[in-house]
Specification:
A 4-stranded mixed beta sheet has the order 4-1-10-9, with no helix packed on it. A 4-stranded antiparallel beta sheet has the order 3-2-7-8, with no helix packed on it. A hairpin with a 6-residue loop joins strand 7 and strand 8. Helices cover 11% and strands 22% of the residues. The chain is built from 5 helices and 10 strands, in the order H-H-H-H-E-E-E-E-E-E-E-E-H-E-E. The longest helix has 7 residues. The chain has a domain of 137 residues: Aromatic compound dioxygenase (Protocatechuate 3,4-Dioxygenase, subunit A). The chain is globular. Bound molecules: fe (ii) ion.
Protein backbone atom coordinates (compact mmCIF):
# COMPACT_ATOMS: atom_id res chain seq x y z
CA UNK A 1 0.00 0.00 0.00
CA UNK A 2 1.39 3.38 -0.90
CA UNK A 3 1.88 6.09 1.69
CA UNK A 4 -0.87 8.72 2.05
CA UNK A 5 -0.27 11.95 0.10
CA UNK A 6 0.13 13.98 3.30
CA UNK A 7 2.78 11.59 4.60
CA UNK A 8 4.64 11.77 1.30
CA UNK A 9 4.63 15.55 1.12
CA UNK A 10 6.00 15.76 4.65
CA UNK A 11 8.81 13.24 4.37
CA UNK A 12 9.95 13.10 0.74
CA UNK A 13 12.92 15.45 0.50
CA UNK A 14 13.88 17.11 -2.76
CA UNK A 15 17.46 16.44 -3.88
CA UNK A 16 19.84 19.34 -3.40
CA UNK A 17 21.52 21.24 -6.22
CA UNK A 18 25.16 20.07 -6.19
CA UNK A 19 26.36 23.65 -6.76
CA UNK A 20 24.92 24.64 -3.38
CA UNK A 21 26.95 21.94 -1.64
CA UNK A 22 30.67 21.49 -1.07
CA UNK A 23 32.70 20.04 -3.92
CA UNK A 24 34.36 17.91 -1.26
CA UNK A 25 38.05 17.26 -1.84
CA UNK A 26 39.92 20.53 -2.29
CA UNK A 27 43.38 20.60 -3.90
CA UNK A 28 45.86 22.13 -1.48
CA UNK A 29 44.02 21.04 1.67
CA UNK A 30 45.12 17.47 2.35
CA UNK A 31 42.68 16.98 5.24
CA UNK A 32 39.71 17.14 2.86
CA UNK A 33 40.95 13.93 1.20
CA UNK A 34 40.76 12.11 4.53
CA UNK A 35 37.50 13.63 5.64
CA UNK A 36 35.40 13.55 2.48
CA UNK A 37 33.86 10.28 1.18
CA UNK A 38 35.73 8.83 -1.80
CA UNK A 39 32.52 7.20 -3.11
CA UNK A 40 29.33 8.96 -4.23
CA UNK A 41 26.92 9.71 -1.40
CA UNK A 42 23.97 7.36 -1.07
CA UNK A 43 20.56 8.55 0.08
CA UNK A 44 19.30 6.74 3.18
CA UNK A 45 15.58 7.47 3.36
CA UNK A 46 14.04 7.34 6.79
CA UNK A 47 11.90 4.27 7.14
CA UNK A 48 8.61 4.23 8.98
CA UNK A 49 10.26 2.50 11.93
CA UNK A 50 12.80 5.32 12.27
CA UNK A 51 10.16 7.99 11.99
CA UNK A 52 7.83 6.41 14.50
CA UNK A 53 10.26 4.45 16.72
CA UNK A 54 12.02 5.61 19.91
CA UNK A 55 13.63 8.98 19.33
CA UNK A 56 16.21 9.13 22.04
CA UNK A 57 18.92 11.23 20.42
CA UNK A 58 18.62 13.90 23.08
CA UNK A 59 18.82 11.35 25.88
CA UNK A 60 22.21 10.24 24.60
CA UNK A 61 23.37 13.77 23.80
CA UNK A 62 22.92 15.56 27.08
CA UNK A 63 23.29 19.34 26.84
CA UNK A 64 26.61 20.69 28.07
CA UNK A 65 27.90 24.24 28.36
CA UNK A 66 26.04 27.22 26.95
CA UNK A 67 28.97 29.46 27.78
CA UNK A 68 32.47 28.93 26.41
CA UNK A 69 33.77 32.35 27.42
CA UNK A 70 33.75 31.83 31.19
CA UNK A 71 33.59 34.46 33.90
CA UNK A 72 35.95 36.46 36.10
CA UNK A 73 39.38 34.88 36.59
CA UNK A 74 38.24 31.97 34.39
CA UNK A 75 37.38 34.21 31.44
CA UNK A 76 38.82 33.07 28.08
CA UNK A 77 41.04 35.47 26.17
CA UNK A 78 39.42 37.04 23.13
CA UNK A 79 36.64 39.19 21.75
CA UNK A 80 33.43 38.30 23.55
CA UNK A 81 30.61 37.36 21.16
CA UNK A 82 27.13 35.88 21.36
CA UNK A 83 26.03 33.51 18.59
CA UNK A 84 22.28 33.54 18.12
CA UNK A 85 21.44 30.56 15.98
CA UNK A 86 18.07 29.42 14.71
CA UNK A 87 17.51 25.94 13.28
CA UNK A 88 14.75 25.88 10.65
CA UNK A 89 13.43 23.55 7.97
CA UNK A 90 12.93 24.30 4.28
CA UNK A 91 9.76 26.26 5.02
CA UNK A 92 11.42 28.41 7.68
CA UNK A 93 9.61 26.54 10.45
CA UNK A 94 11.67 26.15 13.65
CA UNK A 95 13.17 22.75 14.43
CA UNK A 96 12.36 22.67 18.12
CA UNK A 97 14.45 20.32 20.23
CA UNK A 98 17.31 19.92 17.75
CA UNK A 99 20.58 19.01 19.47
CA UNK A 100 23.24 21.49 18.32
CA UNK A 101 26.93 20.79 18.86
CA UNK A 102 29.37 23.65 18.40
CA UNK A 103 33.16 23.75 18.49
CA UNK A 104 35.81 26.24 17.46
CA UNK A 105 39.43 27.29 17.91
CA UNK A 106 40.54 29.72 20.61
CA UNK A 107 41.39 33.36 19.93
CA UNK A 108 44.88 32.36 18.76
CA UNK A 109 43.50 29.84 16.24
CA UNK A 110 44.35 26.75 18.33
CA UNK A 111 42.01 23.82 19.09
CA UNK A 112 42.08 22.03 22.40
CA UNK A 113 42.91 18.76 20.65
CA UNK A 114 46.05 16.63 20.53
CA UNK A 115 46.01 16.54 16.71
CA UNK A 116 46.29 20.32 16.45
CA UNK A 117 49.95 21.00 15.64
CA UNK A 118 49.56 24.75 15.03
CA UNK A 119 52.28 26.71 16.83
CA UNK A 120 49.88 28.87 18.84
CA UNK A 121 49.15 28.94 22.58
CA UNK A 122 46.33 27.09 24.29
CA UNK A 123 44.09 29.08 26.59
CA UNK A 124 43.63 27.29 29.94
CA UNK A 125 40.23 28.97 30.29
CA UNK A 126 38.92 27.90 26.89
CA UNK A 127 37.64 24.39 26.21
CA UNK A 128 36.01 25.12 22.87
CA UNK A 129 33.00 22.79 22.59
CA UNK A 130 29.35 23.07 23.54
CA UNK A 131 26.11 21.16 23.06
CA UNK A 132 22.72 22.78 23.39
CA UNK A 133 19.07 22.01 22.69
CA UNK A 134 17.06 24.34 20.46
CA UNK A 135 14.03 25.87 22.18
CA UNK A 136 10.46 25.93 20.86
CA UNK A 137 11.50 28.58 18.26
CA UNK A 138 14.50 26.49 17.15
CA UNK A 139 16.86 28.96 18.81
CA UNK A 140 20.03 28.60 20.82
CA UNK A 141 22.37 31.30 22.08
CA UNK A 142 26.03 30.65 22.85
CA UNK A 143 28.27 33.05 24.75
CA UNK A 144 31.85 32.57 23.57
CA UNK A 145 34.90 34.35 22.13
CA UNK A 146 35.66 34.96 18.49
CA UNK A 147 37.97 32.23 17.13
CA UNK A 148 41.26 33.08 15.46
CA UNK A 149 42.44 32.08 11.99
CA UNK A 150 44.91 29.23 11.56
CA UNK A 151 47.18 27.91 8.80
CA UNK A 152 46.24 24.69 7.00
CA UNK A 153 49.86 23.57 6.97
CA UNK A 154 49.94 22.66 3.28
CA UNK A 155 52.59 23.58 0.76
CA UNK A 156 50.32 26.32 -0.64
CA UNK A 157 50.32 28.16 2.69
CA UNK A 158 46.73 29.29 3.04
CA UNK A 159 44.88 30.01 6.22
CA UNK A 160 41.44 29.10 7.45
CA UNK A 161 39.44 32.23 8.33
CA UNK A 162 37.76 32.47 11.73
CA UNK A 163 34.93 29.92 11.69
CA UNK A 164 32.70 27.88 13.97
CA UNK A 165 31.86 24.20 13.44
CA UNK A 166 28.25 23.08 13.86
CA UNK A 167 26.67 19.64 14.05
CA UNK A 168 22.88 19.53 14.18
CA UNK A 169 21.02 16.38 15.15
CA UNK A 170 17.38 15.92 14.30
CA UNK A 171 15.01 13.58 16.04
CA UNK A 172 16.65 10.40 14.70
CA UNK A 173 20.28 9.37 14.19
CA UNK A 174 20.07 9.61 10.39
CA UNK A 175 19.19 13.30 10.64
CA UNK A 176 22.43 15.17 10.95
CA UNK A 177 23.96 18.26 9.35
CA UNK A 178 27.64 19.06 9.87
CA UNK A 179 28.73 22.46 8.65
CA UNK A 180 30.76 25.58 9.41
CA UNK A 181 29.76 29.19 10.13
CA UNK A 182 31.88 32.10 8.94
CA UNK A 183 32.12 35.73 10.04
CA UNK A 184 31.18 38.62 7.74
CA UNK A 185 33.84 40.88 6.27
CA UNK A 186 36.78 38.55 6.93
CA UNK A 187 39.44 38.94 4.20
CA UNK A 188 40.41 35.28 4.52
CA UNK A 189 36.89 34.21 3.53
CA UNK A 190 37.76 35.00 -0.10
CA UNK A 191 40.65 32.52 -0.23
CA UNK A 192 39.28 29.80 2.05
CA UNK A 193 39.27 26.43 0.31
CA UNK A 194 36.41 25.08 2.42
CA UNK A 195 34.02 28.00 1.93
CA UNK A 196 34.86 28.36 -1.75
CA UNK A 197 34.36 24.63 -2.38
CA UNK A 198 30.70 25.69 -2.51
CA UNK A 199 30.32 26.81 -6.12
CA UNK A 200 27.07 28.75 -5.73
CA UNK A 201 27.83 32.26 -4.32
CA UNK A 202 24.38 32.52 -2.75
CA UNK A 203 24.91 29.23 -0.93
CA UNK A 204 28.26 30.55 0.35
CA UNK A 205 26.50 33.61 1.72
CA UNK A 206 24.20 31.33 3.69
CA UNK A 207 27.25 30.09 5.61
CA UNK A 208 28.16 33.59 6.81
CA UNK A 209 26.65 34.97 10.01
CA UNK A 210 25.16 38.45 10.22
CA UNK A 211 26.51 41.03 12.66
CA UNK A 212 23.58 42.57 14.50
CA UNK A 213 23.48 46.29 15.39
CA UNK A 214 25.92 47.07 18.17
CA UNK A 215 23.05 48.10 20.41
CA UNK A 216 21.88 44.46 20.46
CA UNK A 217 22.73 42.13 23.31
CA UNK A 218 25.03 42.78 26.27
CA UNK A 219 27.19 45.90 26.28
CA UNK A 220 30.47 43.95 26.29
CA UNK A 221 29.77 41.56 23.39
CA UNK A 222 29.11 41.63 19.67
CA UNK A 223 26.11 39.60 18.60
CA UNK A 224 26.00 37.46 15.47
CA UNK A 225 22.89 35.90 14.02
CA UNK A 226 23.09 32.66 12.08
CA UNK A 227 20.36 30.60 10.44
CA UNK A 228 20.78 26.88 9.92
CA UNK A 229 18.47 25.44 7.27
CA UNK A 230 18.54 21.70 7.71
CA UNK A 231 17.03 20.59 4.41
CA UNK A 232 15.51 21.66 1.11
CA UNK A 233 16.90 23.46 -1.94
CA UNK A 234 18.17 26.35 0.25
CA UNK A 235 19.66 24.08 2.89
CA UNK A 236 22.84 25.18 4.63
CA UNK A 237 25.69 23.39 2.80
CA UNK A 238 27.30 20.45 4.55
CA UNK A 239 31.00 21.16 5.19
CA UNK A 240 33.70 18.86 6.56
FE1 LIG B 1 38.14 24.40 12.01
Amino acid sequence: MSAPATWKSKYVIEPRDARTQSAGVEPGYAQTEWRWPSQPLQRRPHTLSELTGPQDVLKRLAPVRGDLAGQGAKRAIGQLIHLRTQVVDEDGAPVAGAAVEIWHANAAGKYTHRNDSHDAPLDPNFYGAARMTADADGRIELRTIKPGAYPTGGAERWWRPPHVHFSVWGRVWLSRLVTQMFFPGEPLNDSDGVLNAIRDPQARVRCIARLLPQTEGPENALVYEYRLVVRGSRATPALP
